[in-house]
């Protein structure tokens, strides 16, 4: 459970302190008052990643030198400080030099927002990001393998673009490195998808009252029997033409089926929304199972646009004991019998305790 959340010079906040509720904390305010920034701070503190940006310097309030986020997570004190160029982490008041050690002690997170529709409507990169965020929380070796793969991929693409005549020997050296990391990435993504598949079906059945059938499968760019290095050897002509790496985990995708059809093209908007919700719920259940404790749910303005059946199903499908921080522009949708907790109003980056 996350308690005692404190931020200083983070995004629009000079300083804010919130005592979070063990079940539900609602942050209510008009647009651009700071709701999303606050739950982003919680995500950064627990996972060292923002769902909104990969440029950490953006987190520091304009004009300030360093941002700070601190909270208690299941009795441990987490501290994240970030300047334009450096990041400092601390666990229980002791500086933590290795992010892997920090992440091992920290909690897991599921982030939900209106962009979740991109899991169905957007390109494959959205689905890969979904897998990567979950896999990096479940498997301690995943992020290292993914970053190593991406580094080698950048190197290889640079070689493919650089000269009029491609230095294949150099490109192959990068391909060897990519091949090693790709094995871990594939294995972990496959394990994750095997765990997610049945959970997506279960969650979707509750959201759609059991009338539709969904499926989800991981799709590689090439035959599994071939290693990446060998597969890339067969792509010389194509790569010489497009000047970039044609195969590998950076091009893989998830195949999403709805009643045996491709959900990314044939599903209605409502069906796609239920599918995306089911994926996030499945992520929560799989993370709970893998990590032994429910994730923190950070839900950015997702409830207002759901009908009351799906709102109830969404809450009912979460693992028992899941802590939720929910942002919303109004409380009209809140039904007292299924959502009690603490409410804060937020205006111009200042939080006011309203009730609970
Ligand atoms: N580094 C920063 N320093 C200062 N202000 C920032 C920084 N980054 C973002 N902001 C500002 O913070 C404000 C709050 O943004 P935030 O996305 O948290 O609002 P919100 O209440 O979630 O609104 P919405 O409901 O529209 O998403 C915005 O006006 C944004 O421009």
UniProtKB/TrEMBL annotation:
Chief place where the protein resides: cytoplasm
Keyword Nucleotide-binding applies: yes
Organism domain of life: Bacteria
Keywords: ATP-binding, Cytoplasm, DNA damage, DNA repair, DNA replication, DNA-binding, Nucleotide-binding, SOS response
Entries under InterPro entries matching the protein: DNA-binding_RecF, DNA-binding_RecF_CS, P-loop_NTPase, RecF/RecN/SMC_N, RecF_2
Family: Belongs to the RecF family.
Protein's cellular compartments: Cytoplasm
Lineage: Bacteria, Pseudomonadati, Verrucomicrobiota, Verrucomicrobiia, Verrucomicrobiales
Keyword DNA damage in record: yes
Gene3D superfamilies from the UniProt entry: P-loop containing nucleotide triphosphate hydrolases (3.40.50.300), RecF/RecN/SMC, N-terminal domain (1.20.1050.90)
Protein name per the record: DNA replication and repair protein RecF
Binding site for ATP: 29-36
Gene name as annotated: recF
Summary of the function given for this chain in its UniProt record: The RecF protein is involved in DNA metabolism; it is required for DNA replication and normal SOS inducibility. RecF binds preferentially to single-stranded, linear DNA. It also seems to bind ATP.
A Pfam family annotated for this UniProt entry: SMC_N
Domain RecF/RecN/SMC N-terminal per the UniProt entry, residue ranges: 2-345
């Amino acid at each position: 459970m996350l308690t005692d959340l404190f931020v200083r010079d983070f995004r629009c906040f000079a300083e804010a302190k919130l005592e979070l509720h063990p079940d539900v904390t609602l942050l209510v305010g008009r647009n651009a008052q700071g709701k999303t920034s606050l739950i982003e701070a919680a995500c950064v503190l627990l996972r060292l990643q923002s769902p909104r940006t990969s440029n950490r310097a953006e987190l520091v309030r304009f004009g300030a030198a360093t941002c700070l986020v601190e909270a208690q997570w299941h009795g441990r004190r987490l501290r994240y400080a970030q300047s334009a160029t450096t990041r400092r982490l601390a666990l229980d008041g002791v500086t933590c030099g290795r992010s892997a050690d920090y992440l091992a002690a920290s909690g897991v997170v599921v982030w939900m927002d209106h962009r979740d529709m991109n899991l169905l409507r957007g390109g494959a990169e959205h689905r890969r990001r979904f897998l990567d965020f979950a896999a990096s929380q479940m498997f301690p070796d995943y992020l290292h393998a993914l970053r190593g793969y991406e580094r080698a991929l950048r190197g290889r693409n640079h070689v493919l673009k650089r000269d009029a005549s491609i230095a294949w020997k150099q490109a192959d050296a990068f391909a060897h490195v990519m091949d090693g990391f790709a094995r871990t990435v594939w294995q972990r993504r496959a394990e994750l998808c095997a765990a997610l598949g049945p959970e997506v079906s279960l969650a979707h059945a509750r959201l759609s009252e059991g009338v539709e059938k969904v499926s989800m499968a991981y799709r590689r760019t090439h035959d599994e029997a071939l290693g990446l290095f060998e597969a890339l050897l067969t792509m010389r002509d194509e790569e010489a033409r497009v000047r970039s790496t044609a195969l590998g985990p950076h091009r893989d995708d998830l195949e999403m089926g709805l009643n045996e059809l491709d959900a990314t093209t044939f599903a209605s908007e409502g069906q796609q929304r239920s599918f995306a919700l089911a994926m996030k719920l499945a992520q929560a259940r799989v993370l709970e199972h893998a990590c032994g404790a429910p994730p923190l749910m950070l839900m950015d303005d997702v409830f207002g646009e759901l009908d009351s059946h799906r709102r109830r199903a969404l809450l009912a499908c979460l693992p028992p004991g899941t802590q939720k921080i929910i942002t919303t522009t109004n409380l009209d949708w809140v039904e007292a019998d299924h959502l009690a907790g603490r409410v804060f109003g937020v205006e111009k980056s200042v939080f006011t305790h309203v009730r609970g």
